[in-house]
Write a structure and sequence with these properties.
366 residues, alpha/beta, TIM Barrel, 8-stranded parallel barrel, two-stranded antiparallel ribbon
Length: 366
């Protein structure tokens, strides 16, 4: 890679069949992972997309980014991932979370931690082809896939389990059950170092290996490569990172609404206006408003909230040399993969620039 860093680069894809060529292009450019998103009321079905991607690619790692525990039983998720692993043996992974967006869009809270703990325990066993005691509707019985060697599913090799986590309780479950972490920390070495430290501490407490190689950490963000003399809040940069930046407002609003948590300090100046804009929608329909355009585009009412500070706090924006330096610092702090989620209209331009400046100085010919 041009920066000399060991950093891996992935893409997160808002699942849509018409964008399968985007996954193919990411593979051509040297991206290592494609995380296909699962959110049933805004995007297409993630497993249909993964099947298409498996058929069209040959090297890129394919998985859910992330699957929603609250909308599919653990055996259903295991069978779905096992099917993709049959189509793309050894390059399938499972990202799983409580459903921060997918559940809230339906007016429900994400899965509770105790339920997520049980879900992860069952899912991990099933992904390893093991029999496990499973409770459904108050009845417990042993379950296992009965025909794992007959072409239906593949659990050898077992798809790695990446747990989505942000807070201390979810991080503890990631350390206990996961093979890796998928999160979305600010692209700041101190934040990465803190999260890596928490994971290492909890892995040790659970008697699990603590070395970095045993537990990779990936974070969701996006990148804009500046042109000479360009400002970090230019119109072009806003087009490339605005959807991801404004999604941070969506998340902060949900945290305030559910838990009463104050927004980060850098949102203070705009927060009152943003809350007022969201709460123009009646409470009983607000879940249909909060995540409009989620990581795909910015709705007109929210364009005014994409400030220079919001961009710089949530995204990696800089000159090629700046970005190489910052990526190396994130690598040193304990980050293993940067997962890019650019908006739909600019996604090809974003990954082309990242491939050119950070992955390889000479992308292969078409």
């Amino acid at each position: 890679m041009g920066s000399g860093s060991a950093m891996q680069y992935g893409i997160c894809v808002a699942s849509r069949p018409g964008d399968i060529d985007y996954v193919v292009e990411a593979e051509r450019l040297g991206f290592t992972h494609a995380w296909l998103a699962d959110s049933q009321m805004i995007w297409s079905d993630v497993y249909a997309m993964l099947a298409l991607a498996a058929d069209r690619t040959s090297t890129i790692q394919l998985g859910t980014g992330v699957a929603v525990a609250g909308t599919r039983l653990a055996p259903v998720t295991a069978a779905a991932i096992g099917t993709i692993n049959q189509l793309a043996p050894g390059r399938t992974f499972c990202g799983i979370g409580t459903g921060n967006t997918a559940m809230r869009i339906m007016g429900h809270r994400p899965q509770r931690i105790a339920e997520f703990d049980e879900y992860l325990s069952v899912l991990r066993s099933l992904l390893h082809g093991e029999e496990v005691e499973y409770t459904l509707n108050g009845q417990t019985a042993p379950i296992a896939h009965l025909m794992p060697e007959d072409g239906f599913v593949r659990f050898d090799p077992a798809p790695p389990l990446y747990v989505s986590a942000f807070g201390p309780r979810a991080l503890d479950l990631a350390a206990l059950h996961g093979d890796g972490l998928i999160t979305s920390v600010p692209p700041d070495p101190a934040a990465v170092r803190h999260m890596r430290g928490v994971i290492s501490e909890r892995r040790a407490a659970h008697g699990r290996p603590t070395s970095r190689s045993d537990f990779p950490m990936a974070t969701l963000t996006t990148i804009a490569v500046l042109e000479p003399g360009e400002a970090t809040d230019s119109d072009r940069v806003k087009q490339q990172v605005g959807a991801f930046a404004v999604a941070a407002l969506h998340y902060s609003y949900e945290q305030m609404a559910q838990f009463g948590r104050r927004p980060p300090a850098h949102l203070a100046d705009m927060w009152g206006d943003y809350v007022a804009a969201v709460e123009e929608t009646p409470l009983e329909r607000r879940h249909l408003r909060t995540h409009l355009g989620h990581n795909c585009w910015v709705i007109p009412e929210e364009e005014r909230f994409i400030t220079k500070e919001l961009i710089e706090r949530s995204c990696l924006v800089g000159t090629p040399d700046d970005l190489r330096r910052r990526v190396a610092e994130l690598d040193e702090a304990g980050l293993d993969q940067i997962v890019l989620l650019p908006p739909l209209d600019a996604k090809e331009d974003v990954i082309a620039a990242v491939a050119r400046e950070l992955i390889s100085s000479t992308p292969p010919e078409r």
